[in-house]
Amino acid sequence: MASTAALNLLTDHPALYEARFPAPDRLAARWTEDCLRRHRAGARVLDIGCGTGRDAARLHAVGRRVTGADLSEAMLAHARAHHPGPVYVHADLRGFDLGRGEFDAVVCLDSSLLYCHTNAQLDAFLSSCRQALAPGGLLVAEMRNGAYFLGRTDLLDAPAVDTFTWQGSVYRSTTTLTVDRTAQLLRRTRVWTVDDGPEPVEQRSVWRLLFPQELRHLLGAHGFDVLELHDGPGPRTEPPWREGLLPGATADADRLHVVARLSPAR
Questions:
Q1: Residue 50 within a domain
Q2: Computed from CA positions of residues 249, 252, 253, 255, in that sequence, does the dihedral angle turn out positive or negative?
Q3: pLDDT on residue 195
Q4: How far apart are CA 57 and CA 240, in angstroms?
Q5: Is residue 64 domain-shared with residue 187, that is, in the same domain?
Q6: Where is the Methyltransferase domain (predicted)?
Q7: N or C: which end of the chain has fewer CB within 10 A?
């Protein structure tokens, strides 16, 4: 089996990524725009961890002045070619400098924040957000919820198998999740096979597991006031968010959503 420590089949092939995760209704961007409107955010938005640029482009289309930032040059190239409108820049969310007070909101979707594996990396992310935001600016984030794994094993008990077809080839993934409780990390091993393709490819990914009160504490320590912290409805919940739905009052399900405002005093 091939080892791909420096390669990721999906993020290194953005068109394949979009085929695997189609988002024709841009639900994540629509949910984000709803958060920004309800909390009266200004027009300047940084989408950190923007991926292929689909959500950034949707926010641009409704009138936001959007900068999309990502660590993957392949994703950025795809975004510029296929989802124009925003300015796309290379940046690492675990510590970035895109100017001081340049944005009215920082958006971090699809568990991107959880690539900060250590407390130092989380501090660097929040310090970077604090620098990037104007006083009173918003941080909007959506991610897995660490609290879901307290006493639950349904996502860990058996591998998940998924199959989809792209450009005439059938792709099959077998995904296994494990929890490293000491390091507070969720580890994913995914094995890809392609019909009539090369040997199977194994990939490994890691996310930090954050708990609701832990996240509230971290945000407060960096000068943010938490406005919303809940498990849904959101763009990846079941049932998903739809127009007109307001945030819930619990933080127990498998997704976590947060909206926080940087203190005007900073």
A1: yes
A2: positive
A3: 84
A4: 21
A5: no
A6: 45-137
A7: N
State if pTM tops 0.70: yes
Residue 25, token pair as written in the block: 């209704």
Burial of 6 (0-12, 13-18, 19+ CB in 10 A): exposed
E strands within the chain? 2-3, 44-48, 65-70, 87-90, 103-108, 133-144, 160-166, 169-180, 185-194, 201-208, 224-230, 255-262
Same domain, 219 and 137: yes
Predicted local distance difference test score (pLDDT) of residue 3: 40
- What confidence score (pLDDT) does residue 1 get? 36
Instruction: Show which of 161, 191, 207 is a domain's final residue.
Output: 207
User: What is the rounded CA–CA span in Å between residue 46 and residue 223?
Assistant: 19
Does residue 167 sit in the same domain as residue 35?
A: no
- Judgement on whether residues 129 and 24 belong to the same structural domain of the protein: yes
Q: Which residues in the chain land under pLDDT 50?
A: 1-6
- Residue 76's domain comprises 13-145+211-262
- The answer to whether residue 5 sits within a structural domain is no
In a shared domain, residues 188 and 202 = yes
Question: How does DSSP assign 4-60, residue by residue?
Answer: -TT--TTTTSHHHHHHHS--TT-HHHHHHHHHHHHTT--SEEEEET-TTSHHHHHHH
> What sign has the CA pseudo-torsion 110, 115, 117, 118?
negative
Query: Hey, what are 181's tokens?
Result: 């409780």
pLDDT at 178: 97
